[in-house]
Amino acid sequence: MAKTKQEKLDAKREKQYYKKHKKMYRTTVGDVIFNIINYAFFTVFTLTCIFPFYYLFINTISDNSLVKRGLINFYPKGINIDNYLALREVGDLGASFIVTISRTVIGTVLMVIASAFVGYLVTKQEMWHRSFWYRFLVITMYFNAGMIPLYLNMALLGLTQNYLVYILPAIVQPYNIILVKTYIESIPGELEESAFIDGASYMQVFTKLIFPLSKPILATIAIFGAVGHWNSFQDSLIYMQGNSSMFTLQHRLYIYLNTASNIGAIMGQSASDAQRMMEEALNAKVIRYTISMVSVIPIFCVYPFMQRYFEKGIMLGAVKG
After folding, report:
1. Contact call for residues 112 and 220 (beta carbons, < 8 A)
2. Quick one: DSSP state of residue 62?
3. How far apart are CA 134 and CA 139, in angstroms?
């Protein structure tokens, strides 16, 4: 399609402007050196962060005999997926996956909704004793009663050996509420005023205006919540001792990590027994590698889709106090 006279004129002006200001934007030798050092440093830093996960992965898809001899360091050899298929034989692993996935989804959704609603609520000057409740909320970030009183409290509430202990205590997160509150305060107040003039209620303003506009910060705290739920094992370790069917994936991995054969058990055994136990230890090692890899894959898959919201949300949510 042929360009119009105006488009040609605009293109000519843009070209002239670029030539006129070309010298102003010329890259100096110092800029080149800085860019090289900067890119080199962050490339090395990125590879340093990625390599442990890469090392786990190549050991899980390589020949176990080569893994035993420590020959798998930088690339896989004898590629196979038998280790992943063998996970089907690991008892209770499927139940642990279901528990962890369900608590991550349900807990994150409820936490995001609660943080958004409470964060919006504490921005309203007409809220009853707003300053007191907001300060009370902030204080809980710095003071707590400790593990024993917390356990007794959960026991009195009937939450021990109960799936709800994974969900209810984590719904209200003061730090996330502060981030949401700060972000909502950056939204122009005229939008709310125009909605109120049109007859909207607080709930309508929240659901149809504030909540959709807060997607960046809500995606940010969703990442925080999802990673926290997925990686949590202490609550399972403390509250679910009598209910192994409710163990989380991380708790199950923790058990595998602490029940592997050790050198002290091998010493004093006959040669054949020692060899058998070494093979069992190797199998346990490979299984631990495989479970560790499987446990981080879901977060790796989710995070890239949330990344576009993450930077914007965390920066805008941290401007004000």
Report:
1. no
2. S
3. 9
Token pair, residue 317, equals: 């949510």
- What's the pTM value of the predicted model, to 2 decimals? 0.71
Q: What pLDDT digit, counting tens, does each position of 256-269 carry?
A: 766 654 433 433 44
DSSP for 284-316, please give it. Answer: HHHHHHHHHHHHHHHHHHHHHHHHHHHHHHHHH
> What is the distance in angstroms between the CA of the first residue and the CA of the last residue of the chain?
53
Domains annotated for the chain, with CATH where assigned, are 17-80 (no CATH), 90-316 (1.10.3720.10)
Question: What's the pLDDT score for residue 50?
Answer: 84
142, 143, 149, 155: CA torsion to nearest 10: -50
pLDDT at 311: 57
Site of tokens 């490979």: 286
Spans of the chain, pLDDT less than 70: 1-8, 16-27, 86-91, 257-285, 304-321
> Contact at 8 Å (CB) between 313 and 219?
yes
